[in-house]
Design a protein that fits this description.
The protein has eleven helices and eight strands. The protein has two domains: 7-134, Jelly Rolls, CATH 2.60.120; 191-292, Arc Repressor Mutant, subunit A, CATH 1.10.10.60. Helix 3 (134-153) packs antiparallel against helix 4 (159-182), helix 5 (191-202) crosses helix 6 (209-216) and helix 8 (235-253) packs across helix 11. The protein is globular and about 50 Å long. The protein has helices spanning 100-103, 108-117, 134-153, 159-182, 191-202, 209-216, 220-231, 235-253, 258-264, 270-281, 285-292, and strands spanning 7-8, 17-18, 20-23, 37-51, 54-59, 62-66, 73-87, 129-131. Strands 3, 4, 5, 6, 7 and 8 form a six-stranded antiparallel sheet that branches. The chain has a two-stranded antiparallel ribbon with strand order 1-2. The two termini are 30 Å apart. With 295 residues, the chain is of the alpha+beta class. 46% of the residues lie in helices and 18% in strands. Keywords: DNA-binding, Transcription, Transcription regulation. InterPro entries: AraC_XylS_family_regulators (IPR050204), Homeodomain-like_sf (IPR009057), HTH_AraC (IPR018060), Tscrpt_reg_AraC-type_HTH (IPR020449). Residues 193-291 form the HTH araC/xylS-type domain. Pfam families: HTH_18. It comes from Chitiniphilus eburneus.
């Protein structure tokens, strides 16, 4: 296996092995002693491949989602350029292993984390090839770069949690893309349909519903009506829930400071963040971490 199995601490947490790595190659064969899930993003070119007995086309921009057992056999490639992240599912939640993911009925916060891995465990091989819009692909490539950069620079004691946090954001984005792919959209989609994907790509940034409507070539009323049909919520309510859900994941699954998590999900005012978080979860961020954190 050419891609490393783990990133090893050099200065902070010296010798600690974090089982995640990023490589610029198509998915490599499974490693029996070190099971790895893979998210591979094709950003150029195309390939035909066999996956669990099905012949599939993987053409950019698209993701290939693989559990620790499933690996493609490539038939033909044409200008294929790929970036992949390999990770042990245990870094998402310590309750996860190759065996427990298939034999355990999870509940509570473990169930919420399991939700992030479901696209990589799809029974239908065709679901493992996920078409991406150009903006989705760019967003995922930026997250892969963040994972690789944090693992390489290891700038402080929080480098393992921060590396994992970028992986969480990648999995969140893939889950949203997978969900969008299953929606009953019309045969010809337009920017109104892409608004959901754009929200997931920029929810950490400050933007107004009016600005999003202008990007869609629409107005606030039409955009909110369309958004409710897709998600059951207005744009504003959906963004707030997305920010708080992401913050909750980072609080329970990492040890990053609350202030860093707050900024990561788009909040500048600690009082506003705490108030909103408590409204949706019933707990302050610190109390939520104390009750649900597993690290």
């Amino acid at each position: 296996m050419n891609a490393p199995l783990a990133v090893t601490g050099r200065h902070f947490h010296r010798g600690y092995a974090l089982p995640v790595s990023v490589g610029d190659q198509p998915p490599e064969p499974a490693h029996a002693d070190a099971p790895r899930f893979i998210v591979a993003i094709a950003h150029a070119g195309a390939a035909t491949l066999m996956l669990d007995g099905q012949r599939l086309l993987w053409n950019a921009p698209a993701a290939l989602l693989l559990d620790e057992r499933t690996r493609p056999t490539f038939d033909q490639t044409q200008g294929l350029a790929v970036r992949s992240v390999y990770f042990d599912p245990a870094i998402v939640n310590s309750a996860f292993s190759a065996a427990t993911l298939r034999q355990t009925v999870f509940d509570g916060t473990a169930l919420q984390d399991f939700y992030l891995l479901q696209p990589l465990l799809a029974a239908d091989p065709a679901r493992r090839v996920l078409r991406l819009s150009p903006s989705q692909a760019q967003h995922l490539e930026r997250l892969l770069a963040r994972i690789a950069d944090e693992a390489e620079t290891q700038r402080d004691d929080n480098w393992p949690c921060r590396t994992r946090s970028w992986l969480f954001e990648l999995l969140f984005s893939l889950r949203a893309a997978d969900h969008a792919a299953t929606l009953a959209l019309p045969a010809r989609t337009d920017r109104l349909d892409e608004a959901l994907l754009r929200v997931h790509a920029c929810y950490q940034s400050r933007f107004t519903v009016a600005e999003l409507a202008r990007w869609c070539g629409s107005n606030r009323t039409t955009l909110n009506d369309h958004f409710r049909k897709l998600t059951g919520a207005s744009v504003r309510d959906y963004v707030i829930r997305l920010r708080i859900d992401t913050a909750a994941t980072l609080l329970r699954d990492t040890l990053l400071p609350v202030t860093e998590i707050m900024a990561r999900v788009g909040y500048e005012n600690p009082s506003h963040f705490t108030r909103t978080f408590r409204q949706l979860t019933g707990l302050t961020p610190s109390a939520y971490r104390a009750r649900h954190g597993w690290m």
